[in-house]
From TrEMBL:
Domain of life: Bacteria
InterPro entries from the UniProt entry: GH43_arabinanases (IPR050727), Glyco_hydro_43 (IPR006710), Glyco_hydro_beta-prop_sf (IPR023296)
Keyword line: Glycosidase, Hydrolase
One MF annotation (Gene Ontology) recorded for this entry: hydrolase activity, hydrolyzing O-glycosyl compounds
Family classification: Belongs to the glycosyl hydrolase 43 family.
Annotated metabolic or biological route of this protein: Glycan metabolism; L-arabinan degradation
GO biological process, one term: carbohydrate metabolic process
Name of the protein this chain belongs to: Family 43 glycosylhydrolase
Amino acid sequence: MRLKHALIKSTLLFTVFLLLSCQEGKQNNAEVIAENVKKESQKEVSYSYTKLNGIGEEANLTRRDPSDVIMVNGQYYVWYTKTDKHFSGYNASIWYATSKDGVNWEEKGEAIPRGAAGSWDAYSVFTPNVLKSNNKFYLYYTGVKPTPGNAEGVFENNSVNDITAIGLMEADSPDGPFKRVSENPILETSTIKSDFDSYRIDDSCVLYREGKYWLYYKGRSANYGNSGPSHTKMGVAIANQPEGPYEKHTENPITNGGHEVMVWPHKEGVMTLLSSHGTEGRTLQYAKDGINFYVIGSFDNKYPKAPGYFRFDDFEGEKEEKENITWGISMFYGDRANNIWPYLMRYDIEIKDAE
């Protein structure tokens, strides 16, 4: 029986408008926009939320930042951050669960533990995402080590010298065991302080496009480290193989907002739903080339938080999803005042042309 969690069904009318002027860190190609806006007209979006059994709300336990959902041998799989330490994903590890129906889940165990002492991800691993390619399963994730100089060996999140990095593990089965592709991260923060990703990189999501692997991620500059997520932007790095090496695109950053990366194939290009941070927060955007995103709509604050979406087929080939997402797993951020810790929930979403 499906238990609805604060059933929310809102139909939003997207107002299409063009961003033809240059914006900080991003330039849209006017001809590309003009050509494609006719195809991406006004949209209607409706969504609802459903409580999950097995990985839902639990006292004094955080589950958050779910991966995309995949199906293998008739079972859904999802990976996520789990900790009993606090609300955030720091000081956590990555766990996974399976389901037959997308509502009733069985937690299977830890998929990625913290790294060994002295490693770049020794303190915490979090925000996983999954890629199925070349008959292997790849888990991309974010890691941190204890803040340099901290006497207690903890991660301070001090917005000065506690940078993040993105790592990769692979396995022959979604149940693991997952092994490191490299002892080093596959993507690191920029060494140039003014760059958009010189302090934080996180939230990877990999798409297979044009024979290459496109790793979308969020970044934050060291210039704004202590200012929080409002300065988060999105970038992309591209590789010939899932393992890399990944080369950051010269046009990064490719959005001027959003805090959680959610991108999916749409028609010839890529769609993204940006969360409520930055100058482009709470917008739906599209890029035919996967780079030059432009706003095609906006929405209210009831959108899915930190969402991953169900990808109904492999990430390669003609069967890859080209239209719109339909459902996935998101999170509730928690309520400290009432001691409700972050937990996972299902969302169902429909994006369609307005009638």
